[in-house]
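Researcher: Good morning. I'm working through a list of sequences from a screen, and I'd like to move beyond sequence-only analysis. For each chain I'm collecting a predicted structure so we can compare shapes side by side. This is the next one on the list. No need for commentary yet; just the structure.
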Amino acid sequence: MNAHLHLMESFTSYYRVNPNPVARQRLIELILIQSNTTFRKRVGGCTDKYQSDWTPITGAEYDRISYGHDIENIWLLIKACDAINLSHYLFLDLYQTIL
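Model: Good morning. Structure tokens for this chain:
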């Protein structure tokens, strides 16, 4: 989650200065990863540990969340959505669950 969080942040900045189709597609993929794949409703936040096919690694040791990263994720999702003119309100349920 953390690595992709900062990739999304970087791609958002990159796309703002170089709005090319490949950068836009990568940013969309990162938005989907950060808003859906890393978010686990059962845990109530985003987690960091996954298998190579994005299956979450579960158990008491792995079902931990970082509230700071979750709040940062909301902020960076909003910025990324704004960069590609996608309504960040699509993820309102995610924001409310985290907060």
